[in-house]
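for the writeup, i need someone to sanity check this before i put it in the appendix. the sequnce is what the collaborator sent (i think, or maybe the updated version? ugh). structure was predicted straight from it, no edits. if anything looks off just tell me and ill rerun, i have time this weekend
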Amino acid sequence: MTNKKTISVIGGDSRLIYAAEYLADSGHFVSVYGSEHGKIPTTVKKLSSLKEAMSNEIILLPLPVSKNGKSLNTPLSSKDIYLKDLTEEISEHNTVFLGMGQQSLLKQIEAKAKSVCDYFTIETLTYKNALLTAEGILGIILEKLPVSVFGLKIAVTGYGRIASFLSEMLFSLGASVTVFARNELQLTKARISGINACKLTEIGEKAGEFDCIVNTVPSIVIDEKTILNTKKDCILIESASAPYGIDFEACSKHERVLIKAFSLPGKTAPKTAGIIIGETISDCIKEVK
């Protein structure tokens, strides 16, 4: 390999450990910090300080980079790594990759680093990640519903990447799938695939027809009135990001089963998700001089 880089993988869950392993197997010199409770491969060096980690050229940070806006996302570490300390250590020597970073953090890093990239904005990664998320939701449906997917009546709100992958998977297994979307083009795409499609505004009146409702829209579309119209044994699955699309309090109030399907690739397919991150970073750093 002619373009070997020194890479520090700091924090993150098991996905970043798999990403570190992939990058090391690709010929880079890879170290990790802030994941001491994870299963670190022998091809990767363990570091004992943030300062040491920041001495490497490439810095790979978690997805999401932070869950509280104050410290790095470090579920595999006993110690907190504060964003303030991290940004203080960044220099023009560093090229920084992070996932789902807030604009304020990106600007802070950009002011000090050689360059910064939010890898969760890269099309190939988000496309592959959507497929893994859809697979994870399918797994939840198979596990939580006491009946066969074949003939199951399922509603999916939204028809972006995750929803389209999921709808097609369910349809191929014989489920009766209805997509509810705002966009006429999305509705047309669903119908061309053989999937039922209705305007999103119709979900409230039709909610009682379904055994399961999956939301992928990050704004309230399944409100209390809609929840009241669902069957008592209907399972609702929330997969959207904040502010979410299902009224959580209404589900609790009216005793409906609600499953919060968040961060699924990290839970259901961490190795594949990590390899995808590793492949993405590997492609990006080929351009780093």
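Residues 123-144 form the longest helix (22 residues). The mean pLDDT is 96.
thx in advance!!
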